[in-house]
Specification:
This protein folds into 2 domains: 106 residues, no CATH class; 107 residues, Arc Repressor Mutant, subunit A. Helices cover 51% and strands 6% of the residues. The strands form 2 sheets. Strands 3-5-4 form a 3-stranded antiparallel beta sheet. Strands 1-2 form a two-stranded antiparallel ribbon. The protein is built from 9 helices and 5 strands. Helix 2 crosses helix 5, helix 3 runs antiparallel to helix 4 and helix 7 packs across helix 8. The N terminus is likely disordered. The termini are far apart.
Length: 260
């Protein structure tokens, strides 16, 4: 299609030849296509291909940023410097003539490092977008009372449970599919009564068979529910003594009823 035909149809779609983020990105593409090393660029073919690309962009009426023309001028300057005959000047053995490509090579190497880093960050962004984080949930109001007889406060239980979480290292993956809870509170209620049937136990020992955070929380809720219902008694001999959990008379009766 000639220029006159293009002017007659100003709203026709144009062809996009490439998706480059700048002249350095285009140069890296050309270097990869020619299987060259960045540290040893063959300026003549790269310059010819670069200029041909700009001509195609102009032919298809694509807007060209000024940076592309600056790079074109830089390539032409380097090409001219490398084609000029060397002056017959004796150079000392410990001196080397400056390579006209040095500044361009350094810029390309730095750009490539940043591009790789940006690619890794983009991959992390895609992975994070596929994750779902559940918001923290509080214990429903009315589920537990302010105190658990015979005087151990809920804050003390929270502190003890926080210590349990610190001692247990979760074996579950950092990312996983949200699924139904494997262990229910009702199951842990029965488990706690069975463990306490042999006698009082330390609060922390009731979590010894659990590894995941979800199961630890389920066991904690079961202990709170038993304390609220008066089936267990939680006591502490001293300020820094461990919390002791034991079945009450009501809890023993309920355990016997369940067995029957």
């Amino acid at each position: 299609m000639n220029e006159a035909a293009i002017n007659q149809h100003p709203y026709q779609p144009t062809l996009k030849l490439g998706d480059f983020e700048g002249p350095l990105d285009l140069l890296l593409h050309l270097i990869r296509e020619n299987q060259m090393q960045i540290s040893d660029i063959q300026i003549e073919p790269i310059t010819s291909q670069y200029m041909a690309y700009l001509k195609k962009m102009k032919k298809h009426r694509l807007q060209i940023a000024g940076d592309y023309f600056v790079m074109a001028a830089t390539l032409m300057r380097i090409k001219s410097a490398m084609l000029l005959p060397k002056a017959p000047v004796e150079v000392a053995d410990d001196q080397e003539e400056a390579d006209p490509r040095a500044a361009l090579v350094e810029s390309l190497m730095e750009y490539q490092r940043y591009k790789k880093a940006a690619g890794k960050l983009k991959d992390k962004e895609h992975l994070r977008a596929r994750e779902y984080t559940r918001e923290a949930m509080t214990v429903p109001a009315g589920m537990v009372s302010a105190h658990v007889a015979p005087g151990v406060t809920v804050d003390q239980l929270k502190a003890a449970f926080a210590d349990v979480l610190k001692r247990h290292v979760s074996e579950e993956p950092l990312r996983g599919t949200v699924q139904a809870e494997k262990i229910t509170v009702a199951e842990r209620l029965l488990f706690v009564r069975q463990r306490l049937a042999d006698g009082p136990m330390r609060f922390i020992d009731l979590f010894s068979d659990q590894a995941s955070r979800e199961n630890l929380v389920t066991t904690f809720l079961a202990i709170l529910d038993l304390g609220k219902d008066g089936q267990v008694k939680i006591s502490q001999a001293g300020l820094f003594a461990p919390l002791i959990v034991e079945l009450t008379k009501k809890g023993t009766q309920n355990d016997e009823s369940s067995a029957n």
